Amino acid sequence: MSSFGALSTLQYVPGDSFLHRVDPRSKYGFVASYSISLVSSHSLTASLIYTLVALFLFLLSKLSLILLWENLRAFFVVILILNYFQVALNGIEAAAQITLKLISFILMVMLLLSTTPPEKQMEGLRKLLSPLRRLGVKTESCAVMFTIAVIYLPLLMEDLMRMMQAQRIRGPRYGRWNLAWRGRDMISLLTPLLLTIFRRAERLSDAMESRCFLPGSERTVFYQLKLDRRDIIVLILALLIPFIQFNFE
Amino acid sequence: MERKAVGGITFSIPDGQFAAIMGPSGSGKTTLGQLGAGLFMPETGHVYVDNTPTNSRKFRSEISNKVAYVFQFPEHQLFEETVFRDIRYGLRRKKYSELDITEKVKDAMECVGLSFEAYKDRSPFQLSGGEQRRVALAGAIVLEPKILILDEPTSGLDPLTRGKFLALLSTLQRTKHMTIVCITHHLQDALEYADRLVILNNGRLVYDLKPAEIRYALEDPAIALVPTPLLRFRKELEFFFPGKIDSELIQENKLLAFITDRLMRIGDEP
Amino acid sequence: MTAPGNSPSIVFENVSFRFSEHGEWIVKDINISIAPGEWISIVGGNGSGKSTFVKLVNGLLQPSLGKVLVFGESADPANIRRIRQLVGIVFQNPDEQTVGATVEEDIAFDLQNLMFPRDEMISRIDRILKMLQLEELRYRPMRTLSGGQKQLVAIAGILVMHPQIIIFDEASSMLDPHTAGKLLGVMSDLHRMGLTVIQVTHDPEELWNADRVMVLNHGRLAFAGDIPTLMKQSDILEKAQTLPPFLVRLQKALRTKGMELPACCGSEKEMAKSIWESTSAM
In this complex, do C279 and B159 lie within 8 Å of one another by their Cβ atoms? Predict the structure, then answer.
């Protein structure tokens, strides 16, 4: 399909690793627990361990190193700036810590998104939200909205990419640093992009309504997720993570 | 496990030719067109435009002056608020005077059959599909390219508008000596207007024919080319008039002329 | 074909539509009655009102004047769910009809909206997958399918509601000729099963399958009748920004050059034979 720059890291990469087979809810639970512990830790050693955990999971996912590099490269500038400020303000150890934390976090999110296809993510979110039904929230309707957004985002990205291509091909390129003109170019894409989004939305809503969809009304649930042994393992690990904190603080 | 979109293709298109690139969906037609326009760089091998390789940074602007690409959907390449401004978009960085620019835009619009006065201030987003395609075409030819690559230029158009658009391309080929490369899956359009048919399948070039030679590709079950009514009719006609139906007769008016001029006179022959 | 005496499936009574009080009429004074099981082709250039007509049938648009009746029921908001269960529409763009992440989910969409119990949903889905031979695609993500496959899934998603009328709004115009042909085959199968098939199309060659043809010209019904009648007055088509099929064009052109041939019925073989007979007789 299409892969362009930073956004390619958010795309699903098909595979058969352990991580691919874990239920999305377990992954969400693990990432949540991991992130919270990561953010609240204060020692360099703990950060190092978190990074190692992330790297270990990366190996487990059998994803390519190139993907990792592309991913990190996008955030390179941010990391550099962050480092600069940290070294200036709080010393090298703080800088190292924050770099490790940032890298681990990016890595975890990337792993989550690359090993879970959009449809499974939707299932996961939907199931997680289902307790809200008791409160009268129309979760199925919301689920439809989420699903549609997930399905159509790549399509809109492709539209955007084609428009940018068209811009490039029709005239000479401005230098990387010629921000004024490049800004203008970006803005001129706004009208056609919005138009495209509206038109697609209109046609899509026609299709949905023709299939008896009435926004906000009740729908019966179709999907059912099951947890298996793998997921139990992951969930237990998720629960264990905070203990790393306690040991090293 | 990446599949190559296009693998191992070698061919060249001479100046002033009208070539049609055909093949089933996913055969790599669009990718080929994009490679030709310099939108992508090949992983292996080279693409040359007018003997200049497309992956050379030095000649990049020269190449974009020589090749123009028209996308499949006009909404991907119309940006500006008025038709005039959209067509002049390609000239934005050149050092032309306002007067020159107006001349060039007027020229381009007239070439595509859009009246300058009537259309110049209209918003491109409110035009019909056929008109939008003409605006996109004008925007491409305003740079006076030598090569024009079009991706499915007639998709979604009604038959009358389709014919007019293709006739327009043909005129451009003749009057401005442009090389036209048309990616399409309308076989009859290709037979009527193209000098040459290049057929792809699974990223490989499988046929490179003159329109009159289309029967070789039709007989190949692997590419599943759907014969047009005209071709089916020809086949039936061959059955009743064996040996008389020349293979060059694959265009409507030629076939009609043949039937009226030659076949109707058969009764006159001794 | 059409069985006289059956109550019509769709009736348009003096229907006109425009978007606003001061706008132009998109369709004007449409009067037509479509019998159950008929195959109707609707042709006309861009802006002729074809898509508007389609949306008036299932209530996506409400007529400004006149009435639209589907199996005797008026297509207004009170009956809308029932109408939409009876009338299914397959749209032009395969990518813009996807409503589920996987094939199974996409097909289930309608049934979920109609509040079917889960077991009933599963059994209907099983049956439709079998009927359209889509079983192996069941768990595939929609985004991995080709255009033609997506259209088939859209059709499945409609058939699963057990509609009586199915409308194809230029459903094959974005597909390559080979896949378009397959889709035409599915349409024929559905017609044979007794559904009313309405086919909006640009392609003149697709007219041959229809029982009747409606020609729209700037929102007005320029013609509604069977194929042979239309072919005798084929300039109606050209005036409506579209073309007659190849064989009709050929026949017409031959007539101007002095060769009279019997009415063509869509077979290239017959045409070739007529020409041979005609030239042999000279």
Answer: no
CA dihedral (C135, C141, C147, C151) in degrees, to 10, reads: 50
Tens-place pLDDT, residues C190-220: 999 999 999 999 889 998 989 999 999 999 9
Chain A residue at shortest CA distance from C91: A207
Using CA atoms, how far apart are residues C242 and C213, in angstroms rounded to an integer? 13
Residues 130-189 of C with CB under 8 A from A: 141-143, 154, 157-158, 161
Return the minimum-mean-pLDDT range out of A24-38, B227-241, C29-43.
Answer: A24-38
**Could you give the CA distance from residue C86 to residue C94 in angstroms, rounded to a whole number?**
22
Query: Closest to B156 (Cβ–Cβ): which among C173, C258, C268?
Result: C173
C217 and C158 within one domain? yes
Q: Which of B75, B81, B132 to mutate to test the interface with A (most CBs of A within 10 A)?
A: B75
> Does residue C250 share a domain with residue C237?
no
Nearest to A35 by CA among A105, A90, A124, A88: A105
How many angstroms away from the CA of B47 is the closest CA of chain C?
27
User: Which value, to the nearest 10 degrees, does the dihedral of the CA atoms of residues A94, A98, A99, A101 take?
Assistant: 140
Domain count along chain C: 2
Of residues B38, B81, B92, nearest to A171 (C-beta): B92
Does residue C64 lie within any of the structural domains? no
* A144 neighbourhood in chain C, CB within 8 Å: 99
Comparing A129-138, B140-149, C242-251, the range with the smallest average pLDDT is A129-138
Contacts for B253 with CB less than 8 Å, ≥ 6 apart: none
Residue of C102, C105, C109 with shortest CB distance to A211: C109
Nearest CA of chain C to the CA of B182: how many Å?
15
Domain co-membership, C120 together with C213: yes
Verify whether the Cβ–Cβ distance B89 to A162 is below 8 Å. Answer: no
* Whether C249 and B252 lie within 8 Å, measured CB to CB: yes
ipTM score for this prediction: 0.88
Q: What is the largest CA-CA distance in chain B?
A: 71
| pLDDT band of C1, cuts 50, 70, 90 | very low
Residue A55 in tokens: 């790297």
* Residues of chain C contacting residue A122, judged by C-beta atoms under 8 Å apart: 101
**Please, which residues 31-90 of chain C have a Cβ atom closer than 8 Å to chain A?**
55, 58, 60, 81, 84-85, 87-89
Cβ–Cβ gap A191/B79 under 8 Å:
yes
Tell me which range, A117-121, A178-182, A222-226, C100-104, is most confidently predicted by mean pLDDT.
C100-104
User: Residue A247: its pLDDT value, please?
Assistant: 67
Which three-class secondary structure state does DSSP give residue B156?
A: coil
Q: Which amino acid is at C149?
A: Q
Which segments of chain B belong to CATH 3.40.50.300?
18-219
C113 closest CB neighbour out of A151, A154, A219: A219
% chain C with pLDDT above 70: 98
- Which CATH number characterizes residue C163's domain? 3.40.50.300
Superfamily of domain B18-219: P-loop containing nucleotide triphosphate hydrolases (3.40.50.300)
Domain carrying residue C251: 245-282
pLDDT score of A9: 47
The model's pTM: 0.84
Residues ≥6 apart with Cβ < 8 Å to C237: C43, C204, C215, C230, C243, C244
From chain B residues 33-62, the ones with a CB under 8 A of any chain A CB are: 37-39, 60-61
Residue C25 lies in a domain: no
pLDDT of residue C195: 95
| C107 & C215 share domain | yes
What pLDDT was estimated at residue A10?
58
Dihedral over Cα of B99, B105, B108, B114: its sign: negative
